[in-house]
Each structure stands twice: as C-alpha cells, then as structure tokens.
Amino acid sequence: MGKTINIRCKNTGKTHKVPIGFTLEEVYGLLEIQMPYGATSAKVNNKTEGLHFMFFNDKDVEFLDITSPSGMRTYTRSLFFVLYKAVSDLYPEMRLKIGTPVSNGYYCEIEAADGVALQTADTLDQRRDKIKARMQEIIDADMAFHRITCPRDEAIELFRKSGLEDKAKLLESIGSLYTHYYTLGDTIDYFYGSLLIRTSQITLFDIINYGDGLLLRVPDPENPTQLKPMREQSKMFDVFRQQHRWQDILGVSTVGELNAANAAGYSNDLIQVSEALQEKNIARIADTIASNPQLKVILIAGPSSSGKTTFSKRLSVQLIACGLRPIAISLDDYFVNREDTPRLSNGEYDYENVEAMNIPLFNAQMNALLKGEEVELPRYNFMTGKSEQSGNRIRLKENSIMILEGIHALNPRLTQDVPAENKYKIYASALTTIQLDHHNYIPTTDNRLLRRIVRDYKYRGYSAQQTISRWPEVRAGEEKWIFPFQEQADEMVNTALLFELATLRDQALPVLEEVPENTPEYTEAYRLRKFLSYFKSISLEGLPPTSLLREFLGGSTFKY
Using an 8 Å Cβ cutoff, are 388 and 380 in contact? Predict the structure, then answer.
C-alpha cells in the first residue's frame, strides 16, 4: 500500500488512514458514510470544499449534505450551471441573468445580449418547457462538473470569447495571478464556491413562469424530497425590479462594474446618487402618509440589521418637513414582566414571541391616544425584568403622528384592536441587488450579517465569532415572527445601498480574521472573508452623517 495520511472524520467520530491524493469523493466512498441525501461538499479544516478536493496531508473533515446551508449553496450553484448550459444550448444568442431570490426560488431573466427583449417564436410556456426538458437531459446524462485552474488572463480571454463580459470584468478587478473556472461539457462558467461532482446529484428542481422571466425552484433543506413551498412576495419582487432599473441607469449591476467605477474615481458619485435615491424614496413615503390625515400609527418592522432604526429617524425628519409632529414610541417598553414571558421548549424565555408583548395594554393605549386622551407610557426595566411607570405622559395633537419600530410591528396580533384606517405599515430590509456577476447572486442575509458583525464589534463588545454563533437563532426568529407578515406592509423599503459592501469590506475583514480556525464559526467567517475579497474598498469619508450605514459604521448625527 502506498503512502497514507490521517483523516479525522466528524461524521464517523474516528481517525482513518486514506491514500495520499484521494479526493473527498473517494474518501466518502471509502469510509462508507451513510447520508440519506448524499454528500454535496465538506468542511476541510473548517473550510468548505467541493468533493473535487484532494488530500496531501492530514486533515479534519465533515461531510455536508443538502440540509446544511453550505451543502445547499453547492447544490444551488450546480443547478445554476445546468440552467445556464440549457439556455446556452437552446438560445446561444441570449444572455441568462440569475439573481433575485424571491418566493423561495430564484428569479431568472433571459434577454438578448444587447439588452433588447428576447425575440423568439416560442411562447413563454414553450420556452420554459424546452429549458426544463434540456436541464433534465443534462442531469440524466450524468455529466461531470470539472474545475480548471489557470492564469487569470487566460480565464478572462476565455470568458470574453464566450460572451461572459461580466465575469471577465470581475476577474480583471480582482488582480489575482491565478483563478479557476468550471466546465460542463463544452460550456464554461465561474462560481465563487464549490459545485457538485456530477449532474446526476441534482435530484429535484422546477421552473415556472414568474413576472417577465422564470422562477427556478429548489429543494427544501428541511425536507429535501420536496421543493421549497412558494411564498407570496410580489411586493418584494417589485422592490428588487425597481432597484435593478436604477442600477441599469447607473451602469453598475455587478461587482466587476462597481470595482471599475471605483477605480475610475466615481465612488463618491455612486455614494451621492445611491443616498439621494434612498432619501427620495423616504420623502415619497412621508408625502403619502402626510396626505392622509387618518394615518396616526406608523408601524415599521424588519429583520435584524435592516437599518429600520435609522430609517424611522429619517422618515421622522421628512414627516416634520411635511408639517407633522412625529412621536417615537418604543415597542420594547411593552414587554410583559419576565415571569409572564412565554418559554421555549428548552425552558428558556422566548423574548421574540409576540405574546411576550403586553398586547392588551398596547392596544388600549393606542386607542386612548387616537381618541385624544392622555396616557402614561410604560417603561420596561431590562435589569429587573419588570414593566414600570415612566412618568412620560403624552397626548396627540392635531398634527401628531406616532412612529413605532420593532420586530412585531407588522404582526396583526399586536395591533388587533387598532383601527385599520389609522395604521400605515412599513417593511424595511436590506435587499441586496448588486451581483458578483450574472450567475452569482449575493444573499441579502450576508449583507445583514456583515452589518451586524461590524456593529456588534464596534458598539456591543461582541466578537465576530459570537455574532456568527447567534445568527442561526436570529434567522429562525425572523422566519417565524417577521417574514410571514412582510407582504402585509403598505410600503416595502430597500435599505441596502449599491456601494455598501465595498464600504463594509475594510471594517469587517479584520474582525472576521480574529475568528479562530478551530471553531465552528470559522467556516462562515472564512466564507465571508473570501466573498469580501471580490470588492475594492470604498472609503467612509464620502458617507453622509445621516447615511443609514452610519448606524453600523459610526459617525451618525442621529442619536441611538
């Protein structure tokens, strides 16, 4: 037997000797690991690698399947490549854009390379059916995904010859000496993360008509034998489309284009235009509210690090400019006493549960205020876990309007007794629309996580490791208490800024580098570091003091 190395496998709980030069795929077969849905990728020394990865020295390994976030990303990227190949085979003169995550799928556009609407004799249904059938043929053919490493300049030339200018621009802006690309038959593509080994590993997908394009549906990680259930998100989809129109006007829709604009000295212009577009939208919302005298209760909700606090402050400024008098009321002060808080199955308090709010008191005070009565607002003492009297007595004047911001603001249970005609509901979230390239979207959750990592480190004394560790619990709370109500909003606001990831880059990278390699959180920290490396840094100097990003980066003129 030839030279061997040691593999400490988390899946088996044992150390195994395997031949040097074996791939992850070969090790998985050798160890006879039984995973119900098969391995899609693996953590190697806490870095996610594709099953192409080869071993030349001792490593720690944990095989992942589609039920893990990393495994699901590998599956989804591979499905993107199959979709791209199908479109290229059927409509070689057309361009595929994969991007907007919406309705638990991925919205895709197919358009002529010069931007003109797709001209084909096929109806939308025929086009969808042809693409789906071709994808299934590629999957059934059990074709191999090959990863090729080469000098960067060779890859750039190859992408340009294939009409993939967005990928060429991205690689040009990075400045690395070597890079990689993937092949699927005679089709090439670039992905910043791992792919599957073979197309036959893709077991479930669907494509349906959606808007002017297609929606690519993927398996549900919680039940991989079924597709993710469709979720109504027409309002969110409209926000994404509006943002894409703005980006097309600016000529910056991918990171390669952003980096090129930055290098050409246009970063301040991008900041000013992005901030102006956001402020114009906030002013429009304020005008809408001011035009309806019945609106007295403005409810603002959004997931963690969506920037809803700064948004509410900027909205208040615009409402004042409309002649109104905003009164900020903290929903946190309406918590029930700690001993009355609902509990989780493990016995711990469930502070994110809507029943942790004193719903009867809240509704009674809102209605009293709407009737012109005076009320004393409560104050919640987080040290003692008790609701106390605040001494803060308020009464609404003719031009007064209440601003309430919090996790449950859009939950109908919270405002069940407040008349509908007096409420205006706003959902705010960082809906990232810039893409690495046309086949590599940027998850909105990554944008929010990076905001939170920077803010927690600067102002709350938390390390990136601690923030990453808490993030799954935060996300679970959002799925339960925020996302189900987002489409009930009267207005949906995108708080993400076109340039912000380039601004967060230098703030986040040093914090992420502190995460130790021997911790579970290192996997996510390393992935985020790798992702941020695609951006050329943009200085904070040109950022206005009222910018929403200042909530996370510091230097805001607002008080928090």
Answer: yes
Pairing of strands 41-44, 105-112: unpaired
**Which CATH superfamily is 236-553 part of?**
P-loop containing nucleotide triphosphate hydrolases (3.40.50.300)
Fold of the domain spanning 72-231 = Threonyl-tRNA Synthetase; Chain A, domain 2 (3.30.980)
- 548 with 311: CB under 8 angstroms? yes
Residue 507's contacts (CB-CB under 8 Å, 6 or more residues apart) are: 454, 553
Angle between helices 522-532 and 500-512 (to 10 degrees): 140
Instruction: Provide the whole-model pTM.
Output: 0.93
**Using CA atoms, how far apart are residues 309 and 3, in angstroms rounded to an integer?**
59
Long-range contacts of 134-141 (CB under 8 A, 24+ apart): 134/86, 134/89, 134/90, 135/82, 135/83, 135/86, 135/205, 135/207, 138/82, 138/85, 138/86, 138/184, 138/185, 138/199, 139/82, 139/199, 139/200, 139/202, 140/200, 141/199
Residue boundaries of the structural domains of the chain: 4-65, 72-231, 236-553
To the nearest 10°, report the CA torsion of 526, 42, 441, 83. 160
Write the pLDDT tens digit of every residue in 497-518. Answer: 999 999 999 999 999 999 999 9
Q: Which two tokens mark 556?
A: 């805001």
* Helix (H) or strand (E) segment spanning residue 377: strand 375-381
Cα dihedral across residues 117, 122, 128, 131: positive or negative: negative
Block residue for tokens 């905001």: 451
**Is the torsion defined by CA of 59, 65, 71, 74 positive or negative?**
positive
Please identify which residue in the block is written with the tokens 């040290």. Answer: 383
User: For position 433, what pLDDT does the model report?
Assistant: 86
Buried b (16+ CB within 10 A) or exposed e, 152-190: beebbebbeeeebbbbbbbbbbeeeeebebbbbeebbbb
The residue type of 137 is E
Contact 499, 553 (CB under 8 A): no
Specify the CATH class of 4-65 in words: alpha beta
pLDDT value for 246: 85
- pLDDT value of residue 2: 75
Residue type (1 letter), 489: A
Per-residue pLDDT, 114: 63
The two structure tokens encoding residue 441? 């979207």
CB half-sphere exposure, 545, CA atoms < 13 A: 5
pLDDT in tens, 54-64: 999 999 999 99
**Which 3 state secondary structure label does DSSP give 476?**
helix
Regions of the chain where pLDDT drops below 50? none
Q: What's the residue count for the chain?
A: 560
